[in-house]
Amino acid sequence: MGRIVGGIGCSHAPSIAHSYDRGQQQEPMWAPLYSGFEPAKQWLSRLRPDLMIVLYNDHMNRFFFDAYPTFALGVAETYPQADEGWGTRDFPDLSGHSQFSWHLAQSLVEDEFDPTICQEMTIDHGIFSILPLLAAPPWPAPIVPIAANVILHPIPTPRRFFRLGEAIRRAVDSYPADLRVLMMATGGMSHQLHGPRFGFLNSEWDNEFLDKLETDPQSLTGLTHQDYMQRGGAESVEIIMWLAMRAALGAAVRRVHRYYYAPMLTGYGLIVLEGIGG
Amino acid sequence: MADERGYMNRYGLTEAEARLIERRDWAAMIEAGGNIYLLLKIAGTVGQNLLQMGAQMRGESLDAFMQTRPHNSGTSIERSR
How confident is the model at residue A277 (pLDDT cuts 50, 70, 90)? Predict the structure, then answer.
């Protein structure tokens, strides 16, 4: 039997990748973020999951206008980095888990989710920007990536993401072999990247989201995309991916760690949760 | 890029679109229906970053915009709970 043993919700951002690559971990602006992630890194090294399912979005680095899937599931044994235009970073490829991926594909489709099945998938900063803050390479466990469209409307509803998380949980539960699975979702908290509202931040809303994600996630599923965009900025709508992580953990959760830091263009957020009572 | 216009012509941009890119007018590119994640790729190619784009879209100098940022105005919010 597979089992979900924990969940991580966190921001992804090119700025995090740049700070890492430039060695700015100790600089005044960045040091708080790196120490804020440290407890999650330690927790993950103790947890030692067999597999990480990571829900994220691609920024037109793997998928493009010609065909942009609403949900895409990787079934490969290896996932190289996508070149976002500046060359790839000095990290190993992600290892996959093809056998579990195909089980997940079968289970999701039977559960009326129909992802595009990807035999080849390059991965951009949606995963690679944040992974080094959670674990030093070589990466701690194989990864099964699920890319969701949160950048080209129409995008799935918040409730759809919650239900996706429930479906992922059923898939893990029905896996025939023992497998301890970490469920992770990445996506920025408040930020707006275009127009006169560029640079919009809303730390109050970000922290309200973190509160409700833990204790009352259903209330977040009833909000519209516009609600999210008005409260957090247009591009922050991607935070709805975290609802899938929360749903995958079951009804009740225990908070292991939480961190929030908003120094520049976005609220960098992190929450680490464990499910209670199976 | 040695020949910006020649490159754009290869991909069938209209005269109006090419001018917006030559002017680095990100605000107008958004108005014209541009997607920020793709405009970022143009910016990277012509040597601008997101902060420069943002200042232009807000109608400010980069310096003026940077002064509004929490880290630079001593108002960064950090919470751990």
Answer: confident
pLDDT-derived band at A228 (thresholds 50, 70, 90) equals: very high
User: Is B23 touching A (CB cutoff 8 A)?
Assistant: no
Domain range B4-73, its CATH number among 1.10.700.10, 1.10.10.10, 1.10.230.10, 3.20.20.70: 1.10.700.10
Q: Kindly state the tokens that stand for A126.
A: 């949606």
Residues 6+ apart with CB under 8 A from A80: A88, A93, A122, A123
Chain A residues in contact with B68 by the CB 8 A cut-off are: 199
**For chain B, what are the domain ranges?**
4-73
Chain A closest CA to B23's CA: distance in Å? 16
Question: Is the torsion defined by CA of B53, A263, A274, A208 positive or negative?
Answer: negative
A260 with B78: Cβ contact below 8 A: yes
pTM, to two decimals: 0.97
What number is the ipTM of this complex?
0.94
Tens-place pLDDT, residues B13-57: 999 999 999 999 999 999 999 999 999 999 999 999 999 999 999
Q: Which of A103, A191, A194, A225 is catalytic?
A: A191
- Minimal C-alpha gap between B38 and chain A (Å): 7
DSSP three-state, residue A5: strand
The domain A2-269: what is its CATH number? 3.40.830.10
